[in-house]
Amino acid sequence: MKSVDAHLAEILATVRPIDPVGIGLDSALGAVLAEDVRSPVALPPFDNSAMDGYAVRAGDVAAATEADPVVLPVTVDVAAGDTAPRAVGPGHVTRIMTGAPVPAGADAVVPVEWTDGGTDRVAIRRPARVGNAIRRSGEDVRAGDVVLGAGTTIGPAQLGILAGVGRHAVLARSRPRVVVLSTGAELVEPGSPLGPGQIWESNSFTLVAAVRQAGGEATRRRAVGDDPAEFLETLEGLLGAADAVITSGGISMGAYEPVKEALSPLETVRFEKIAMQPGMPQGFGVLGERQVPIFTLPGNPVSSYVSFVLFVKPALAKMRGLPDGPPATVTAALTAGARSPAGRRSFLRGVLDAKGSVTPVHRQGSHQLAALAGANALIVVPEDVTELPEGATVEVIPL
Ligand SMILES: Nc1nc2c(c(=O)[nH]1)N[C@H]1C(S)=C(S)[C@@H](COP(=O)(O)OP(=O)(O)OC[C@H]3O[C@@H](n4cnc5c(N)ncnc54)[C@H](O)[C@@H]3O)O[C@H]1N2
Ligand code: MOO
C-alpha cells in the first residue's frame, strides 16, 4: 500500500498555483496577493487632528488651569475634508474636528472636553503638550513602503489597507473554484423523504463547507447515481468552470463503482489503496485540457472528510499560492488507550481540550457521522503502532 506521505507528495507535485489576475477589491476577500503592494503616499497623508477640539500653539495654553483658564479668540472652524489653507497665529486658536488638517502654526490640539466649548472665544482649562492629539503624516505608512507582501491572504483588514493606499484592484490568485459532486444511487437530498434502502446525502455539505473554510469557492452538485456514463457526462459539463473537482463515493471494490469505472479508462486518474484508516481507497489525477485536478474521495462520510483534511486542503493551499504540506499537528496526552490496525496510519476522532489532553470518541466507524461531529481533532497513530496506552503522547490534527 502507498503511504499517506507519498500520496500527498504526488498530489502536491501535480497541482499548480492558480494564475494571478487583476481582481477588484469587491471580489478580493480570500484571494492571495501575487504582488507586493506599496503605498504611493504617506499615511496619514497630512498631519491631522485625532480629536474634536481646538488647534492651538502649545505655548499659548501652557499656563491654563481649572481655576484660571486661558481664554483665547477662535478664528475659524476646520472640518475634516477642509481644503482651504488655515493657520493659527500667536494668541489665536481654531476649532478643529477629528481628521481635519492641522492648521499651519498650530502644534497641539486641545480636546473640547478640556474647554468650555466656546465658538467665538474659548476658555481652555488644561495645558497641552506639543503634538497632543495630532496624528502625524507618515506615522502609519511612509510613501513607498510595502504595506502587504506577495503571498498575503486578503482578509477584512487587508482590504482596508489596500483601499487605504488607493488601490481598487490587485494582482492576486483568486479562491480556487471547486465543484463537489457525490455519487450513489442510495442518496437522497435532505428535505426529501427517505425510501427503503436510502440515506440522506451528507458528504457534499461537509466537503463544500470544508472547501470554503480552506479558502476555496465551492459549488455543490446534486448527487448522481451509479451510472458511469451519467457521472462522466456530469463531470464533463462542469469542468470548464472548475479549478478542481472533488467527488465522493464509487471508488472501492463493489460491482457499482461509477467514479472508478468512468475514470479508470482515461488513465489520468489513479485509484489506489493508501495505508491509512479511515480513507484507504483514494483516487487522484487530472482531467481535460486544463489538467483540472480531481480528488475522488471514498464515500464513507468520515473517510471523505479525513481525506479532505489530509490531501485536498494542502492542495488547495498550493493552488492559492500559500505554503503547503501536511496538516499542522500539536502534541497532546491521550486520556484513554487507543488501538490502530498494523501497517496503517490511523486518524482517530478525538476531543482535544485546552489543557492539551485528547480523548478518543467512543464510535470510530467511518460511517459514524455523529461521532465525527462531536470531535474536534484527529489523533494520529503511526503505521507501526497498534496500541497506545492511556497517557501516551500523540500528535493531533486540530479540525
Ligand atoms: N470489499 C471491499 N469493500 C470495501 C473496501 C475494500 O477495500 N474492499 N473498502 C471499504 C472502505 S475502507 C471504504 S472507505 C468504502 C469506500 O467506498 P466507496 O468510495 O466506493 O463509497 P460508496 O461505496 O459509494 O459508499 C460507501 C458508504 O458511504 C455512504 N455514502 C457514500 N456517499 C455518501 C454521501 N454523499 N453522503 C452520505 N453517505 C454516503 C454509502 O451509502 C456507503 O455506506 O468502501 C468499503 N468497502
Ligand atoms: O478506509 Mo474506509 O475509509 O475505512 O472507511
From TrEMBL:
Keywords: Magnesium, Metal-binding, Molybdenum, Molybdenum cofactor biosynthesis, Transferase. Transmembrane segments: none annotated. It comes from the Bacteria. GO terms for cellular component: cytosol. It catalyses: adenylyl-molybdopterin + molybdate = Mo-molybdopterin + AMP + H(+). It is an enzyme of class 2 (transferase). One of its GO terms (molecular function) is molybdopterin molybdotransferase activity. Its cofactor is Mg(2+). InterPro entries: MoaB/Mog-like_dom_sf, MoaB/Mog_dom, MoeA-like, MoeA_C_domain_IV, MoeA_C_domain_IV_sf, MoeA_linker/N, MoeA_linker/N_sf. Residues 179-318 form the MoaB/Mog domain. Its EC number is 2.10.1.1. One of its GO terms (biological process) is Mo-molybdopterin cofactor biosynthetic process. Gene3D superfamilies: MoaB/Mog-like domain, MoeA, C-terminal, domain IV, Molybdopterin biosynthesis moea protein, domain 2, Molybdopterin biosynthesis moea protein, domain 3. CDD domains: MoeA. Pathway: Cofactor biosynthesis; molybdopterin biosynthesis. Belongs to the MoeA family. Catalyzes the insertion of molybdate into adenylated molybdopterin with the concomitant release of AMP. This is Molybdopterin molybdenumtransferase. It comes from Sphaerisporangium album. The lineage of its organism: Bacteria, Bacillati, Actinomycetota, Actinomycetes, Streptosporangiales.
